[in-house]
Amino acid sequence: MEKVWVAGAAMNRFGKMTDTGREAATKVALDALDRAGLEPKDIGYTFVSNAFGIAEKQAHVGPLINTSLGIPEVPSCTIESACSSSSAALHEAFVHVAGGFLDAALVVGAEKLSHLDTLASTSYFAMGADYAYESRNGATFPGLYATLATAHMHRYGTKAEELGAVAVKNHANAAHNPHAHFQKPITMETYLGSAPVAWPLKLYDCCPFSDGAAAVVVVNPEKFRNRLKAVPALIRASARSGSIAALQDRTDLTGLPASQLAAEKAFRQSKLERKDIDFLEVHDCFTIAEILALEDMGFYPKGSAARATAEGETALGGKLPVNPSGGLKAKGHPVSATGAGQVVEVFEQFNGMAGKRQLPGPSLALTHNVGATGGSCSVHIFERV
Ligand SMILES: CC(C)(COP(=O)(O)OP(=O)(O)OC[C@H]1O[C@@H](n2cnc3c(N)ncnc32)[C@H](O)[C@@H]1OP(=O)(O)O)[C@@H](O)C(=O)NCCC(=O)NCCS
Questions:
Q1: Is 83 labeled as catalytic in the residue annotation?
Q2: What is the pTM of this model?
Q3: In this structure, are residues 324 and 289 in contact, taking their beta carbons and an 8 Å threshold?
Q4: Mutation pick for ligand 1 pocket among 203, 292, 336 (CB with most ligand atoms within 8 Å)
Q5: Which of 324, 339, 373, 290 is nearest to 111 (CA)?
Q6: Would the CB of 332 count as within 6 Å of ligand 1?
Q7: List of domains in the chain
């Protein structure tokens, strides 16, 4: 197996874009290539994620992005895995480069839904759930994650203030992130006083609807080592797992089996242990999701991550910083750009580009990206080269 490096990664500011998904994807791809020191003609394949391109009346966007990049002859395909689409695309790029089929690949995720209202966006997103049993009967993602939160509260006594600690921390981190959708800290009072969305989840438990785009350039170091401009990240593990998709078919709602399985695979692949990891970017589409991620991946025993978060262990200065970028909660969640956006945070942290949210010399980072309520999940581990 060949080694695979992340040579460059870039994103735009998540939030509301005036660009189309295709325009934004092209711009961040050029930025990621520029950060790497490479050019479009170096790319052998473009793996695109754009799960809700049809909301812009555009499918098959890969050839359009490659045409804008000046490489229309380069193959492309669109990879859809709901909210984990661009980490699934990264996995495909990894497999191709590791297998020796490509020397360099571009991963680019883009999403634009801000021209739709909340009802329409909610309806699009709900297509990622089980239509026959969940969405058709009115289930939405806030409702489905509220079900998971309720189960966790019931079994472990998880408190609203502990979920609130996730929101307060992630908004505080995002306040230092120029890429973030929300760049204002919030207080616990603001959190507790925010409007109910789906009990027990309130406004500040939820990620927003964000537009955004992010790109990652992966290379075989043997071919490009001498041309790179930035500190690369070695992909120590690229793991994916699935699980029963619909909540009603699962036997336990206090965790996501796909997160457990993907993390186990990633730690086996990398031969690392949990204690080796310096920071995590995890899939906190709702505050409860960050708690589940920490427990499912084995960083905290079941039922203990919420309390640890409330005690500050996962804050920027804590013993295991989680979501220094602000996470999906506050950096934003433009579905198909989210997984690639997590890698941008790793790239910026490894390159000392993270400004006031910079961690002191991190060398190992993990990203965790969930599709829907965990029908799919990707876990990647990166090492600073
Ligand atoms: C929580 C949610 C229902 C709020 O939608 P809404 O009530 O229509 O909110 P609006 O878009 O009208 O925004 C109202 C205000 O709240 C803010 N806001 C919206 N969503 C927010 C969020 N998640 N967190 C914090 N603030 C938010 C807006 O910026 C706006 O602020 P302003 O009045 O200062 O401009 C919506 O963001 C949501 O459904 N989020 C979850 C998305 C999702 O399911 N993603 C998939 C995950 S698997």
A1: yes
A2: 0.98
A3: no
A4: 203
A5: 339
A6: no
A7: 5-116+210-233 (3.40.47.10), 140-207+235-384 (3.40.47.10)
